[in-house]
Amino acid sequence: MRTKRKNNEIAGFLTFICLVLLGFKISGSILTQDCSWWLVLSPVCIYLVFTPSLLIEAMVKYSRNLSNKEESME
Q1: Residue 50 CA to chain centroid, in angstroms?
Q2: What is this structure's pTM?
Q3: What pLDDT is stored for residue 31 in this prediction?
Q4: Three-state secondary structure along the chain?
Q5: What is the predicted pLDDT for the residue at 53?
Q6: CA atoms within 13 A on the CB side of 29
Q7: For the chain, first and last CA: distance in Å?
Q8: 43-68 b/e with 16+ CB inside 10 Å = b?
Q9: Is the dihedral of CA 10, 16, 19, 25 positive or negative?
Q10: Using N-to-C axis directions, what is the helix angle for 2-27 and 42-73, rounded to 10°?
């Protein structure tokens, strides 16, 4: 349950950062005037890279809990 909440918090933060950077880029702000679109959209890329790793971590923890429960039942 905590992993799901943590994942949602990370997604919300990265979405906020991406929207701020997009707003700066579209408005022509000095902060992002010389930045490429790849840099502006990097929070989305970061999220897409780390989400599978968080899912794999959650599956490993779940499988360990199942094996521990099975051992304790024997």
Answers
A1: 5
A2: 0.54
A3: 72
A4: CHHHHHHHHHHHHHHHHHHHHHHHHHHCCCCCCCCCHHHHCHHHHHHHHHHHHHHHHHHHHHHHHHHHHHHHHC
A5: 76
A6: 11
A7: 27
A8: beeebeeeeeeeeeeeeeeeeeeeee
A9: negative
A10: 180
pLDDT tens, position by position, 23-67: 888 888 877 778 888 888 888 887 778 777 777 877 888 887 777
User: Which two three-digit tokens encode residue 58?
Assistant: 């959650």
Rounded distance between C-alpha atoms, residue 24 and residue 20, angstroms: 6
User: How far apart are alpha carbons 2 and 30 in whole angstroms?
Assistant: 39
Round to whole Å and give the CA distance between 60 and 68. Answer: 12
For 9, phi then psi, to 5°, come to -65, -40
Cβ atoms within 10 Å, residue 7: 16
